C-alpha cells in the first residue's frame, strides 16, 4: 500500500547537503537518488515486512511516500525518515554557536541549517561503518552494493530505482561464508580481519551481545562497540552520530576531517589530536561542526 506524509522541517534546512551526502553513499538497488529533484528513495526493514520510502524536499517540508507491507508500520516509517533527514533539529542554536568561531563562521553563513544524516536500517548502519573504515566513500559503496546484490532479498517496488533490501545479519553471515576465503567472487573483498569483524558483529547482533537501535544509550553503545575487535573510536563515534543522531560526537582520526580542517586553517598536517582538542570549542554541537568540515573537504 502507498500512503503519503508531509514531514515539516525547521528552516533554514540544508537540503542539497543532506541529499548529496546520501546520494554519494547510495547502495545500488537498495537506494536511489536524484539530486536534480532533491529526491531520495530506499527500502527499509519494518516490523510487518519489507517496505520502501521516497522523499523529496519542498520548502519547509519533506514530501514522503511510504510503500508499506502493513499500515501499522506508518509511524515507524515516518520516524525513520525524520531521523534519516534530521528533521527535528532546530538549526538556530547550532548555527549561532558554530558561527561564534571565526574559523567556522564563513561556512555557517554560506550553509545555514546544516544537518547530520541519520540511519534508516540500524544493522545496516553498523555494516556501513565497518566496511567504510580506512577506505574511500566510493570504494565502500562498491563493496556494500556487491554485498547487497549477493545477499539482499529481491523487492518489487512501485518506487523507481529500488529492487532489493539490504541483507539481514543472517543473510550476511550466510553469503560471506568463510571469512578467511580470498575467492575473487566473494561479496566482501576486504582484508580478512575486516570481513571477520563484519561477520562477528552480525553474530553479536543475533546473539544479543550487541544492541544496536535508535534508542540505545550512547555511552553503553559506545562501550559495547569499542570492546569489539576492529572497532575503534572513529567507527563507534560514526555509529553514534548517524544511528543515534548524537549532536556532539567527534570522529577522531578521520582523514577527510583533517583535510577539511587544513582548508579552514585550523590545523597543519595530520594533527588529529590537535583538531580533537579544538573541536571541544564546538561542543555541544561537534557532529554539526564535523559536517561543515567534511563539506569543506569535498
Per-chain topology:
Blueprint: E1 2-8, H1 15-24, E2 31-34, E3 39-46, E4 49-58, E5 61-67, H2 74-84, H3 91-99, H4 105-110, H5 122-131, H6 137-151, H7 169-176, H8 192-207, H9 218-226, H10 233-243, H11 255-264, H12 272-279, H13 286-297
Antiparallel strand pairs: 1-5, 2-3, 3-4, 4-5
Helix pairs in contact: 5-8, 5-10, 7-8, 9-10, 11-13
- Span from first to last CA? 39 Å
Give me the CATH fold name of one domain.
Answer: TATA-Binding Protein
Q: What is the annotated CATH architecture of one domain?
A: 2-Layer Sandwich
The outline comes out as globular
What is the string of helix and strand elements?
EHEEEEHHHHHHHHHHHH
CATH class of one domain: Alpha Beta
Helix content: 40-55%
**What can be said about the biggest beta sheet?**
5 strands, antiparallel
Question: Numbering strands along the chain, what is their spatial order in the largest sheet?
Answer: 1-5-4-3-2
**Unreliable parts:** none
> Approximately how much beta-strand content do the residues carry?
5-15%
Helix/strand-derived category reads alpha+beta
User: What do the pLDDT scores average to?
Assistant: 94
**Total DSSP helices:** 13
What is the CATH H-level superfamily of one domain?
A: DNA-3-methyladenine glycosylase AlkA, N-terminal domain
Radius of gyration: 19 Å
How many E strands? Answer: 5
EC number: 3.2.2.21
Keywords: DNA damage, DNA repair
GO molecular function, one term: DNA-3-methyladenine glycosylase activity
Catalytic activity: Hydrolysis of alkylated DNA, releasing 3-methyladenine, 3-methylguanine, 7-methylguanine and 7-methyladenine
Amino acid at each position: 500500500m502507498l500512503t503519503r506524509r508531509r514531514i515539516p522541517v525547521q528552516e533554514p534546512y540544508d537540503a542539497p547537503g543532506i541529499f548529496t551526502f546520501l546520494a554519494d553513499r547510495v547502495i545500488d538497488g537498495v537506494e536511489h537518488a536524484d539530486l536534480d529533484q532533491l529526491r531520495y528513495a530506499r527500502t527499509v526493514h519494518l516490523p510487518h515486512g519489507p517496505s520502501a520510502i521516497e522523499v523529496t524536499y519542498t520548502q519547509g517540508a519533506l514530501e514522503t511516500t511510504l510503500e508499506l507491507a502493513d499500515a501499522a508500520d506508518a509511524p515507524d516509517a515516518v520516524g525513520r525518515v525524520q531521523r534519516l533527514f534530521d528533521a527535528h533539529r532546530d538549526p538556530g542554536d547550532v548555527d549561532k554557536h558554530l558561527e561564534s568561531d571565526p574559523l567556522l563562521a564563513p561556512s555557517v553563513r554560506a550553509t545555514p541549517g546544516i544537518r547530520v544524516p541519520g540511519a534508516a536500517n540500524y544493522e545496516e548502519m553498523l555494516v556501513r561503518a565497518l566496511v567504510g573504515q580506512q577506505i574511500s566513500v566510493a570504494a565502500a559503496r562498491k563493496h556494500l552494493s556487491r554485498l547487497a546484490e549477493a545477499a539482499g532479498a529481491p523487492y518489487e517496488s512501485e518506487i523507481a530505482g529500488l529492487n532489493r533490501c539490504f541483507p539481514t545479519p543472517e543473510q550476511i553471515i550466510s553469503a560471506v561464508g568463510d571469512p578467511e576465503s580470498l575467492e575473487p567472487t566473494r561479496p566482501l573483498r576486504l582484508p580478512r580481519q575486516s570481513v571477520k569483524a563484519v561477520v562477528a558483529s552480525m553474530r553479536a547482533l543475533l546473539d544479543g551481545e550487541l544492541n544496536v537501535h535508535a534508542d540505545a544509550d550512547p555511552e553503553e553503545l559506545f562501550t559495547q562497540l569499542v570492546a569489539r575487535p576492529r572497532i575503534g573510536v572513529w567507527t563507534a563515534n560514526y555509529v553514534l552520530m548517524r544511528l543515534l543522531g548524537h549532536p556532539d560526537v567527534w570522529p577522531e582520526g578521520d582523514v577527510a576531517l583533517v583535510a577539511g580542517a587544513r582548508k579552514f586553517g585550523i590545523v597543519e598536517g595530520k594533527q588529529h589530536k590537535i583538531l580533537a582538542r579544538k573541536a571541544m570549542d564546538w561542543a555541544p554541537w561537534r557532529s554539526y561542526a564535523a559536517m561543515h568540515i567534511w563539506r569543506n573537504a569535498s
